[in-house]
Specification:
By secondary structure, the chain is mostly beta strands. The protein is built from one helix and 13 strands. The chain is elongated.
Length: 237
Amino acid sequence: MKNQHLAGFVASVLCFSATVAQAQDYYYLSPDAGPVFRLGIGPSLFEDGKLTQFSGPGIPTTGPVPSKVDFDTGFAFDAALGWAFNKYAALDFETGFIGAKINNVPGYLSDNSRLYNVPFMVNATLSLPIPRTNIIPYVGAGVGGADVVFDTDNFTQNDSGIFVSGSENDVVFAGQVFAGVRFELTRHLSLDLGYKYFATGNPTFSYSPRFGGGPNLDVGFRGARTHSVLAALRFDF
């Protein structure tokens, strides 16, 4: 009799365990869950920036700083790898490139000078599929940082004649928001058309003296404020 009760108890436990496992599988393993990979590319418009610092030995403190920075139309590229929890929510890690050539800085000669941003972001995306269509609007936001590079052949302050050349970098905080529409081409491939606003903290670039020792020459800019329109391919595995 005890064996029958024991067998019944074991059977009940096994049935309960199987039910819980099935519930967990249903909860955690949504049919739409899995890895996602995205590649995007498009033009990027930089808001007018500001030269906030140009300081070092021999540079007058009354020189033309701050000064407005005007950019040419830039270029953006991004790549992201992440995980979709279901058809509504996903997280990913993104990197890429957002850069533009400096067109004009009043009071300075800018010869082939560019600012590049290499972001490293963690993004959360909320998708809102439209029933009985292949159209999926989405919104999202990301936080992280950016490795900002100032690359110039010749950036000269007109008043002093002092210049810097070469590449220097600085790592700063960065954030972004984005929105767009995704069109499902197949179960595993989608085409995205989206907008992204990207902003960074203020980078400072420190150039060593060209001849001998002495203080560095520091060049600072207000952080980037960019508006990018991107076409992207998304792969769901």
